[in-house]
Design brief:
It contains 16 helices and 16 strands. By secondary structure, the chain is of the alpha/beta class. A hairpin with a 5-residue loop joins strand 15 and strand 16. The structure holds adenosine monophosphate and zinc ion. The site of adenosine monophosphate (AMP) has 16 residues, from helix 1 and strand 10.
Length: about 500
């Protein structure tokens, strides 16, 4: 069975065939670009759902034998508080509020972001690229767009003229000027000839005076000293690393109508090649009972909030895997409790099968039946092939666990990323832990809980890192205690 994925471009489930296809999937190259974070604040758990989706998709493609190059950008300039060019640069705003430089803010939240993704077992992208380090590429791309006649200048800014790009509405499926979404863009910027037009290069905005005053980072360009619009970075960086046409572009559903439509328009206007990206994959939102979670509105949940409440980051990974990426996922503490209970019960069962295997030749009933392990693994693969159906993949994992087929379980976990083998190995090794080492770790845990009580989070974090560096897996329990296991280094 072929790998099928829902393509927002065309709105249907499609068989995945790479842009450069070969007769076998093995070794075929796939270029994957996922919009990365704007690093002006911590990622919230909704954002992290997007990165978990990217990770699962990339892992699934690799399991199928594709050589995937995963590119992720870091937005550290140009993303205004409104996605549609209105408001203030999010980075500049955060820097002002916290009395830090934009680059300090960016460095701090980039590190925090990757700490979160690591705790969630999200694999590092092959290429992580910062907007501020690719200004030359953006300027070069804007020059091509301009040379092809798709731009106009107004009020000091350079705009993309969407009326000149005849399939601007192809991705969003909206082509009506009276559409609510389009109307909502009207009147925000009097320079625009059409509400959907967008800025390629700013020299002036509400918060930028002459010569860029008010904007922390500015660059010289053929259109004046200023800074790039938000959308151009993704076009410039994805094409630099993946070529002028590539396979998959992913992001949250909120990016379809503006950010990704704009990316397509400017990329194809520059290169004249259609389609720029073959498959567009969008994850639905994680929502709270109160509605949308918003980074800029504040009051959102971070991974650290979950950890402080005693959850393991992998409880959240399990929760996300339990919902299909194209369904809205309603977050609640009860749902997270449920995910934790399932994950712990899964681990218990796997550990006891592993123990049985160690004690007595191990093979379970089903392992002696050569047909059934293959069937189980194939139902897992069929689930992933069917538009990344992770709830069904989890069911296949449970079936393998119930049968005690540990080889299948560990094999499936290369995609699910629940750290199952590592957890079992850690439990195995704990039995033989040297008492002096155990006393040292217990001492560090006590120091860490004292630091947490004193709200000295930096110290608590550094002790956690020191414990991890010793090859110890630390789990914070709900009652405030911590348990640990050694040997997963
Ligand atoms: P941002 O850092 O705001 O650019 O967002 C990073 C990624 O998270 C983007 O792909 C967004 O589409 C996605 N995203 C934002 N909010 C949510 C949410 N509540 N649930 C799922 N994905 C989200
Ligand atoms: Zn993007």
């Amino acid at each position: 069975m072929a790998f099928k994925i829902y393509n927002t471009l065309g709105r249907k489930l499609e068989e995945f065939v790479p842009v450069v296809s070969t007769s076998s999937t093995s070794g075929a190259h796939v270029g994957f670009y996922g919009c990365g974070p704007t690093v002006y604040n911590f990622a919230h758990i909704g954002n992290l759902r997007a990165y978990l989706t990217h990770d699962t998709l990339v892992r699934s493609l690799r399991r199928r034998g594709y050589q995937v190059t995963h590119v992720m950008n870091i937005t550290d300039v140009g993303h205004l508080t409104g996605d549609n060019d209105e408001g203030e640069d999010k980075m500049v705003k955060a820097a002002g509020e916290r009395h830090k430089s934009v680059l300090e803010i960016a460095a701090f939240y980039t590190e925090a972001f990757f700490k979160d993704t690591e705790r969630l077992n999200i694999k590092w992208p092959d290429i992580v690229c910062k907007a501020t380090e690719h200004i030359d590429e953006m300027i070069a791309l804007i020059k091509r767009i301009e040379a092809n006649g798709y731009t106009y200048s107004a009020g000091g800014n350079l705009y993309f003229d969407t009326a000149k790009f005849d399939h601007y509405w192809e991705l969003s499926g909206r082509n009506n000027i009276n559409d609510e979404e389009t109307v909502s863009r009207t009147g925000l910027d009097a320079n625009k000839k059409h509400p959907a037009d967008f800025v390629l290069w700013f020299t002036k905005s509400k918060f930028i005076g002459q010569d860029g005053e008010g904007q922390a980072l500015v660059w010289d360009s053929p259109w004046g000293t200023g800074y790039p619009g938000w959308h151009i970075e993704c076009s410039a960086m994805s094409m630099k690393y993946l070529g002028e046409q590539f396979d998959i572009h992913a992001g949250g559903i909120d990016h379809v109508a503006i950010h990704h439509s704009n990316e397509i328009a400017q990329s194809e206007a520059a290169t004249g090649k259609h389609p720029w990206v073959k498959y567009w994959v969008h994850n639905e939102f994680l929502v709270l009972d109160k509605g949308k979670m918003s980074k800029s509105a504040g009051g959102f949940l971070t991974l650290q909030t979950l950890i402080d409440k005693g959850f393991d980051p992998l409880d959240y990974r399990y929760l996300v895997l339990g919902a299909h990426y194209r369904s809205q996922l309603q977050f609640s503490w009860e749902a997270l409790e449920g995910a934790r209970a399932s994950r712990l019960s899964l681990l218990d069962k796997i550990k006891s099968h592993a123990e049985a295997r160690r004690r007595g030749g191990g093979a379970t009933q089903s392992n002696s039946d050569p047909a059934s392990p293959r069937l189980r693994v194939s139902s897992f693969d069929e689930a992933l092939d069917d538009d990344l159906n992770t709830p069904r993949a989890l069911a296949a994992l449970w079936a393998a666990v119930k049968e005690g087929d540990l080889d299948a379980v560990y094999d499936m976990d290369t995609v699910l990323g629940l750290g199952l083998k590592e957890a079992v190995e850690a439990a195995d090794n704990q039995v033989e832990v040297d008492p002096v080492f155990a006393a040292e770790i217990e001492g560090l845990i006590a120091e860490r809980s004292a630091a947490k009580k004193a709200k000295d989070w930096a110290k608590a974090d550094s002790i956690r890192a020191a414990i991890k560096a010793k090859g110890v897996v630390l789990t914070d329990n709900k009652d405030g205690s911590s348990s640990w296991s050694a040997g997963s280094f």
